[in-house]
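Below is how a single chain appears once it has passed through the pipeline. First comes the sequence as given, then the structure the pipeline wrote out for it. We keep one example in the README because the format questions we get most often are answered faster by looking than by reading.
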Amino acid sequence: MCGINIIAIYHSPGEQVGSIGFGAMGLAAFYGEPGYNENHIGTFFKNHPGSREKVFLCTKFIMKYTESGERVINGYREWFHQASNDSLKRLGVDKFDWYYANRADSNVDVTATAAALKELKEQGKFFTMRSSIGVLRTTPPSSLTPPSDAVSSLGENFNKNLELVSDIRKIADKKNAIPGQIALAWVLQESPTIIPIPGARKEKNLIDNNKAAHILLTKEEVAEIHGVINSFKISGQRYDADFIKTVAL
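Resulting structure:
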């Protein structure tokens, strides 16, 4: 299954995603204006009865907006309950499939974060809890450890790192595909428990991403991709020193 991260489509994401047939939707209360992202998908669900049951619905929390409009991280239990209730109301549903914290609050012990998530799960608010981008690098007790959402942005050293894309493009050309489709197809074949949720700004990119689910890589091609990855050294860090503190403890 392949999903879509509804992060930058602000016009009619539900219509586009619904017609293309992605299996998962990745949302967040803080994408765009506060709550806009979830409200928009909630409207789509309301206008298309039965559409909710056709997707794995994922949404993020832990970030919140202050009255002044500043976005801050709140890892306290009370906010977890409020945030989950607010998101469910905006989406017009009674349960998420996945619910996850995508930042770390340095003021809150990671075991408390995991325990609060577990509490919400026991209330029936979601099917499974998740952490994102290294939030639970400090491993809590196994009974509290959620699956991890491996998301990564790339904002610098493009010229150097694009050399990796050039190597993948050679494989893509053989499959009459584009590098991004090969990357998604590779992730899909790596494990049945991994569901990629790529973002997209245009409907064309949504369609291209979805086609990756129909690309079958041979064992030799998978080995070739592993060889490219293992031999390439990524240039630069993901985030600056200050921001990295919010994604891992």
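The chain is about 40% helix and 15% strand.

See the next section for the split statistics.
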